[in-house]
Amino acid sequence: MVNNKNVLILHFTVLIWGFTGVLGGLLSISAVHLVWYRVLIAALSLFIYFIFMGKSIHVSKEKLIQFFLVGGIVGVHWVLFFHSIKISTVSVTLVTLSSLTLFTSILEPIINKTKISKADVAIGLIIIFGIYLIFKFEFQYVWGIIFGLAAAFCASVFSIFNARMVKKTSPTVITFYEMLGAFFAVSLIMVFMGDFNAEMWLQDADWAYILLLGVVCTAIAYVLGVAVMKELSAFTVALTTNMEPIYGILLAMLIFGKQETMSLGFYIGAVIILGAVFLYPYVKVKIENREKRLINRKLH
């Protein structure tokens, strides 16, 4: 019963994450302004959380620098993600972002100096084919697809480094400092681009959307996600998290209607990519179990 409850909470959390793309489409401000508000609100919300829970946020200088640098990558990722939505559609961006699995399969063995998995290569090739179909049939959104792929690349990089850092530091503490790092990184971008201007002022409707994005979709969703992930297997978490683009696309179609209607080629490519992403945990576990059995036979 406890696990069923945790799975439901995780699905709810993933649904909230999927809703971030819809909020990006609803907000009238630019991608860089949107992210600036998001990370500022998320950092403040987490700071209030630490005070309320009476938890320490002290970390070493070395860790602080690491968290800030990775946070900078997180900030760039979100700017690319929301800019992709602004110049294409929520559906295009969310499906393209699913290439995160592809980039991780390439980058993780390089960064961690580990052996390349056969499952990673196989799934990666299928995802490339799906992306090719989307490029072919939705070429009018070519820049949206490119920015979506760049966002997926950044997400892959910070996910790999987070997986390392979370072994030594509380995930919530890491997120707090990463949000601060993202805030400073996005602020620097805005200074160089001259984006501290009248265009960043929020309209009346934007206030509700930006608070939802910063508090509910970032701070609260993260705390909920971390809490249940400690109780569930990595396989269950991976499989459930793959629902994010599906939830996001369904919500976008419900809210934006015809604006989110795509070509048949797009949906074929999307099914191929999402199918590959869903199959990935099954294939990886089967191949790893097979390799373990072969090693055990050799040892005996």
From TrEMBL:
The organism's place on the tree of life at top rank: Bacteria
Xref: InterPro entries: EamA_dom (IPR000620), EmrE-like (IPR037185)
Coiled coil feature spans: none
Transmembrane portions of the chain: 7-29, 35-52, 64-81, 87-107, 119-135, 141-161, 173-192, 207-228, 235-256, 262-283
Upper taxonomic lineage: Bacteria, Pseudomonadati, Bacteroidota, Sphingobacteriia, Sphingobacteriales
PANTHER family per record: ACYL-MALONYL CONDENSING ENZYME-RELATED, MOBA-LIKE NTP TRANSFERASE DOMAIN-CONTAINING PROTEIN
Protein name stated in the entry: EamA family transporter
Annotated organism of origin: Sphingobacterium arenae
Keyword Membrane on entry: yes
